[in-house]
C-alpha cells in the first residue's frame, strides 16, 4: 500500500512526532538537532536531556524551526530550515557553512537548510528529496529570498548518519548551485527563490 508523503511545521502539538523521529537518543548521539544552535562549549556541557529541553523550549517559542515528514500518519523525517540567524553556529567564521557576506547571518530573508534526519528503516528511499522540496516551499511561503545549504559530496555508506547535512546530489536536483568551496567535499550551495 502506498503511503502519501507530507511535511508539517514542527510546533508544540507535533513534539511527540519529533521525539518519535529523533528516537530515545535524540538522533545523532543525543544531538536533538542543537548542533548548529548551541555553541561548542554549551554542546559539550549539556547532557542529552538538556539538549532535548533546549529544543523543546525553542519549538514552544516559535516560529517552527523545521518540518516533520510523514508517510501516511507515521513521522519519518526531520529537516531543520529557517533563517540563518536561528542557527548561529552554522554562521561561525570557522565553519564551511559560514555566509558569503557577514551580514547574511542576520538577514531574516536568507535561510538555511542545515540538518536532515530520516528514521533508519526509511533511509535510502528518496525521502530527503521530498523533505528538501517541502523545506523550499516552506521558506518561499515565509518570504525567504534565498536558501543556503552546505551538504556533503559523498559518504562511504548511502545510509550514513553523516548525511545529516544532506547530500550534494539532492540539492543539485532541487536547483541549488555551488557558490563557495571552502573544504573539499563540502560545497556551500544556494537556491535563489
Question: Could you please describe the fold and organization of this structure?
Answer:
Helix content is 28%, strand content 23%. The longest helix has 15 residues. 39% of the residues are buried. It has a 7-stranded mixed β-sheet, with helices on both faces. With 193 residues, it is α+β, with helices and mostly antiparallel strands. The chain has one domain: Aminopeptidase, CATH 3.40.630.30. The protein is globular, with a radius of gyration of 15 Å.
How are the elements arranged and paired?
Blueprint: E1 5-9, H1 15-22, H2 26-30, H3 40-45, H4 48-61, E2 66-71, E3 74-83, E4 110-118, H5 127-141, E5 146-149, H6 168-173, E6 177-181, E7 187-192
Parallel strand pairs: 4-5
Antiparallel strand pairs: 1-2, 2-3, 3-4, 5-7, 6-7
Q: Count every helix, treating DSSP H or I runs of 4 or more residues as helices.
A: 6
Strand order of the largest sheet: 1-2-3-4-5-7-6
CATH architecture name: 3-Layer(aba) Sandwich
Instruction: Let me know the CATH homologous superfamily.
Output: Gcn5-related N-acetyltransferase (GNAT)
Average pLDDT over all residues: 91
Shape: globular
Give the C-alpha Rg. 15 Å
How many domains in all?
1
Poorly predicted tracts of residues = none
The end-to-end distance, rounded to whole angstroms, is 35 Å
Helix content: 25-40%
What is the CATH T-level topology? Aminopeptidase
Please describe the biggest sheet, giving its number of strands, its sense, and whether it closes into a barrel. 7 strands, mixed
Instruction: Report the sheet-strand fraction.
Output: 15-25%
Strand count: 7
Per CATH, the class reads Alpha Beta
InterPro entries: Acyl_CoA_acyltransferase, GNAT_dom
Domain N-acetyltransferase: 8-193
Protein name: N-acetyltransferase domain-containing protein
GO molecular function: acyltransferase activity, transferring groups other than amino-acyl groups
Amino acid at each position: 500500500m502506498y503511503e502519501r508523503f507530507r511535511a508539517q511545521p514542527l510546533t508544540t502539538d507535533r513534539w511527540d512526532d519529533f521525539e518519535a523521529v529523533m528516537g530515545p537518543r535524540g538522533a545523532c548521539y543525543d544531538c536533538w538537532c542543537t548542533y548548529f544552535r548551541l555553541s561548542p562549549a554549551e554542546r559539550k556541557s549539556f547532557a542529552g536531556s538538556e539538549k532535548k529541553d533546549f529544543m523543546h523550549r525553542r519549538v514552544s517559542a516559535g516560529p517552527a524551526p523545521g518540518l516533520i515528514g510523514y508517510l501516511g500518519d507515521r513521522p519519518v523525517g526531520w529537516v531543520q530550515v529557517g533563517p540563518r540567524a536561528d542557527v548561529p553556529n552554522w554562521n561561525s567564521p570557522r565553519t564551511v557553512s559560514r555566509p558569503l557576506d557577514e551580514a547574511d547571518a542576520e538577514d531574516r530573508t536568507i535561510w538555511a537548510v542545515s540538518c536532515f534526519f530520516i528514521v533508519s528503516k526509511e533511509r535510502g528511499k528518496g525521502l530527503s528529496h521530498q523533505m528538501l522540496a517541502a523545506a523550499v516551499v516552506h521558506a518561499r511561503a515565509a518570504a525567504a529570498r534565498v536558501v543556503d545549504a552546505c551538504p556533503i559530496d559523498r559518504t562511504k555508506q548511502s545510509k550514513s548518519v553523516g548525511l545529516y547535512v544532506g547530500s550534494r546530489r539532492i540539492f543539485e536536483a532541487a536547483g541549488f548551485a555551488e557558490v563557495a568551496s571552502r573544504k573539499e567535499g563540502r560545497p556551500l550551495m544556494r537556491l535563489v527563490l
